[in-house]
Each structure stands twice: as C-alpha cells, then as structure tokens.
Amino acid sequence: MDPEWNDSQPIYRQIRDRVVAMILDGVLKDGDPLPSVRNVATESRVNPLTVLKAYQQLETDGLIEKRRGLGMFVHPGARGLLLTGEREKFLAERWPEIAATIQRLGLADQLLIKPPGEGEG
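Above: the chain sequence. Below: its structure as tokens.
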C-alpha cells in the first residue's frame, strides 16, 4: 500500500478505502489473505492500531473475515457487495451531476452515436 496520506480524511479510512479499491480492482479476490496489521503498519509508517481500526471497519462491513490464528481474509462475495454499493452510490450521488453536464454541453446525441469505424471488426 502506498504510504502517502492526505489530510482530507482519517488515515484508517484511507487504508480501508485502499483495501476496497484492491478488492474492486481484483487485486484481492475472495478468500485472499490481507497483509498483516504489523506489515501494513510498518510499510505505511502508521500505528498498528490505525490499521486494526481500518480492518475492523472492513470486517463490520462484511468485506473481510477474521480467521482465528490465521489472519484476515477477503470475505466470499465481497467484490459483488462492493460493486452493488458503489454502483448505487455513483448513480445517486455522481450521475445526476454528470448527466446534467452532458445535457448542458449538448453532448447527449454525440455520446449515443458511435464514431465511424468503431465496432467494426
């Protein structure tokens, strides 16, 4: 994980979001182990309790599971759960603004028509 942090949100939240992105991108798949709290803390130069808090939130969200004595693992179905949630969030929060901008700029017709040569093959 990249140890660069921003001040816009707590570090534990940024760690959580990075794990979420890794699951969505397929870097972490169902059943894959997460890096240990100690390793993430050392590589990221943060307190292990910060990493633990991020992992606990992921566990509460049903995205990872703790296996006693083995560590944390991506919960089966985590990617599907994330995709559903992220799609709903996108459509509710971001899409209305994007759609309004498309309309305002008169791009709707251009986006519905394929450019010449596209799709031929």
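The first helix runs from residue 11 to 24.
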